[in-house]
Each structure stands twice: as structure tokens, then as C-alpha cells.
Amino acid sequence: MQILLVASAFNSLTQRAYSELGDRGHQVALTLLRGEASERDAELRAAVRRHRPRLIVAPMLRTALPQDVWSGLPCLIVHPGPVGDRGPSSLDWAVDEEATQWGVTVLQANAVMDGGDVWAAGSCPVPPVGKSDLYRNEVSDAAMTALLLAVDRFASGTYLPVRQTDADPRPYFPQERRRIDWQRDSTAAVLRKLRAADSSPGVLDRLLGEEWFLHGGHRETELHGMPGELLATRAGAVCRATADGAVWIPQLRARRRPGQDRPFKLPAALALAGRIPGLPEVPVAPDCPATTWSDIRYREEGAAGFLSFSFPGGAMSTDQCRRLLDAYRRACSRPTSVLVLGGQRDFFSNGIHLNVIEAAADPAAESWANLNAMDDLVEAVLTTTDRLVVSALGGNAAAGGVMLALAADEVWCRAGTVLNPHYRLMGLYGSEYWTHLLPARVGAATARQLTGRALPLSAASGQRIGLVDRLFHCRPQAFATEVRAGALRLAGSGAVTGPRIAAKKAAREAQEAIKPLAAFRREELDRMHRIFYDPEAPYHALRRAFVRKEAPTVEPPHLDDGE
């Protein structure tokens, strides 16, 4: 069936819908609604004329569809709330009110926002995580279950959607309700407010005499101080005292001032650089207690080691790459036969940290440093020949993050994962040994197709073409447990792992004799260096538009080799 996918952004759910509808054999076209209302409506009408779809599907919309479109074609809207829930802030209310169960409704567009007839609905648990994590995982699972059912029902031609009863929509979730009273609010209350706004819009607050949006939060169990006081930094986050404890805040975004460029999220300590002299850095080891917050963790069980990491938005700065590399090297000094990299819920990695690069005094130099740090990490995984390495992706991965996963011996994915194994949309040729890793997995022709088309790929499709070795059909909260069990079984089968490790070492030596890894790295970095240090290269405008959430002023280039 010809389906037109319509969205306000090609976000995680839109990418998953695009991928999984395509996996079902549907012909899926995509149009993104940007700009003023008249411009958006004109683009949508043009897309309808061009593609002539039987059905329009809208996984994520910030604005209403024009009446002439929804009255002329069936339009299915994915609403991130249970049947009867209406309004633009459904998940904010769910997290703020500490709901334990939530839902997703697929409804037909009409004149009443979120009030159309229901084609399908799904439910999901609400674990104690941030809103964006919940959206990318439990809500995404429920949304796809409901959406695929709704599309099947529509295709059957026999199903009649269910009319909704009247309901009062919830209002937009205001900043007044998010406001933190540092003198009175408990740690639990602060975390609830931060989680309900973690990625967007953030919690507006005053800090050191200026207004900032706070993004994300983690409990601190040892540090204490006067409520509202900044206590320490760790891994780019700042620790702030609450009425009964403290929280770690990973990211800050300055409030926009008149005439100012749109600010963007940065590691909190970097955003406050120069304003917090003398604030102590309080690092912890990766094997610290589970109650201690750390963005990198390591633990062992029998002959299996587990090195997990969680960076906001999946982006990995120069510092994060270097710290993860140090932790990886320490993990490789341990007497294990299997090492799992990743294995937690949500993002695996999206490659270099474009926000930190954009904020740097010399973005070209920071791009270069970040890419080399990422290359160093991938190389360390690629050259590990004394144990088996498993990349475990509980969430999405893109660009260099996909290549980091492919550097391992096996790639395990949760079934809801979306992969973007390409760089072209940011105007980049790419590095992280992709010219070796991707063709080795899928062949040269498929590698050219993946990087040239620059489209998302479901984990199931990744398995079919050889990018993914194993799929886990489980809930997000169960992924770590499933990975643990799989790793222990692998580590416990010495008759299998021993010969595989020996064969792996021999294969690495044979590859080095044919074409050393250093040659792949040199060729890729030569291309990337020219891009980074060319002020006219599209990468710089595309990066700026991406981090500031603006429409790009240039189109991504089609590089001469299909990239």
C-alpha cells in the first residue's frame, strides 16, 4: 500500500515507523512539515499530489493537518496518550503525575484535535525514567504495535474505527508547574520535575544569577549542602543540593535573549565554564556502587564483563570518548572471555558530539579532536583479540555509533532499535573505520546503498543484511537482563569461545597483511580533515542548523562515491 508519512521532524518514532512500515512491504514516502502554516500546508498538498497515497500516517505532529487534506484522505494520527487523553503535553503529565501505566492511541484526523475515531490503541508501563527515554522506548513500542494494527485494519477495508466520547483536553504543561523550589523541594520532587522535561523543554531555573533550562537529572546519595548550592562536577554534570539531598544535572541550555542565536544544550559544567571556579570535580570509578551516579559503569559476573555507558542524546564528546576508552582498556585487563559493550536501555551512540563542537572556540579543531578520540575507541575494540566483544544496543545508534557497534565480534539489538549507518546528512564522508567495517559486514554494494540513501534501518532489516547478529524481542526494562543471560551463556561455553578467540586473532593478523587498519583510518581522516577545515563545506551550516534546531540553509551533498 502507498503510505505518505507526515511529521514535524524525522524523530526516533518517525524513523521507526518509516522502517517498520517498509519492512511490512508498504511503499512509504515521507514529507516533513516545516516553516509557516501556509508553507507547511502547501508542501503537504504537493506531496499528496505527487505520491497519491491511499493513507497518510502522522507519527509526530506539532501542528494540525489542513481540513482539505484530512477530509479528502484518511489520516492516522499517533497520539502518545491513552484513549480519551488529549492535548500537547501527554507524556509530561504522565511523568509528573507518576503514572505507572500509559498508552498510545492511533486515531483519524478530524476537526477536533486528538478527538477523531480510534483505529487502534496500545498500552505500556511507565518506569522511573525521563520523558524522552520513555518516548523512545515503551511509548515507541506501544505506538508501533498500535500503528501496525491500525494500518492492517485499514488495508482490510472491513474495520470500522470506534468513535471517541467527548473529553476535555489537558492544557499545555506550563513552566510554572515545572518550577523547582530548591529550598523546599525534596530530591524526589526535583527528579520528577526534571524527568518530565528532560529533553524538551527543560526546566527553567535561575543559576548563578542567570536563567537556564535544566535538562535531565540523577540522584546523588553522598553529597549534601545548603539547598540550591552547587556542590561539585562529575563527567560534565553539576551537582546541586536539594532540600533533603542532591541531584546531578547533566545538561544546561541558556535562555534565549532578544537578538541572540538560539541556544542549545551543553554539558552543564561546560555551559557554566568560567562561572564556577573552585567547584571540585568528584570522579568515580566505573565499578562504583549501583547507587552512585556515573555515566560509565563496569561490572563482572563469572567470565563475562559488562561495560555500559549512557550519554545524553547518544552524543559522545572528546572527553566522553577518552573516558570510555580508558574504561574499556581497564575492562580488557580483567580475566574475562566475553566483554559486553553497552547493554542498557535507550541510546547506544550517535557518534561525535555536534553540540560541544558547535560551542568550541575552534569548531574545526574540536571536530578533529572528537573524531580522532572516537577513532581511538573504535580501534581499541577492533584490535581486541584476547576475548570476544559483544555490542549490545538497547536503543538507537547512528553514524560513528553504528561503526562502534560493528567493531565488536557480535552485535545484539533490542527489536525496537533503529540504525542509521551513514554520515551524508551532516555533509560528512565519515570515519571510525567505516570503509572497513561496513563492507566487511554487508558487502561493498550494500554498504554503498546504506551510506548513499542515508535512510534509517530497523534492527530486523539490519539482521537480514548482516549488520545485526541477534535480536531480543523484549521490553526495554528487560534488555539488560536478557543481555546478561546471553553473555553468561557465551562466556560459559569455553569449547566455543576458545576457538573463536583464536580464529579472531588470526583473522586480524591476516587483514593487517592485506590492508592495515592504519591505512583505512588515514584515508578516511584525509577526507574528513578537508571537510572540517574548509569553512565553505556544507558540514558547518548543517551542524549549526542541527544543534540549533533550525531549517538548514544548505542541502546535504551527494558525495562522488555515493556517500
How does this model look, in words?
Residues 558-563 have low confidence and may be disordered. The protein is 39% helix and 20% strand. It contains 19 helices and 23 strands. The two termini are 30 Å apart. It has 563 residues and is α/β, with parallel strands linked by helices. A six-stranded mixed sheet has the order 2-1-3-4-5-6, with helices on both faces. α1 (12-23) packs parallel to α5 (131-156) and α9 runs parallel beside α11 (363-382).
Write the layout of secondary structure elements.
Layout: E1 2-7, H1 12-23, E2 27-32, H2 37-51, E3 55-60, H3 67-70, E4 75-79, H4 90-96, E5 101-108, E6 118-125, H5 131-156, H6 175-178, H7 187-195, E7 203-207, E8 210-215, E9 218-220, E10 230-234, E11 237-241, E12 246-249, E13 251-254, E14 266-267, H8 268-271, E15 296-301, E16 304-309, H9 318-332, E17 338-345, H10 354-359, H11 363-382, E18 388-394, E19 397-398, H12 400-406, E20 410-414, E21 418-420, H13 434-442, H14 444-453, E22 457-458, H15 459-465, E23 470-472, H16 479-492, H17 494-514, H18 517-532, H19 538-548
Parallel strand pairs: 1-2, 1-3, 3-4, 16-17, 17-18, 18-20, 19-21, 20-23
Antiparallel strand pairs: 4-5, 5-6, 7-8, 8-13, 9-12, 10-11, 11-12, 13-14, 15-16, 21-22
Helix pairs in contact: 1-5, 9-11, 11-12, 11-18, 13-14
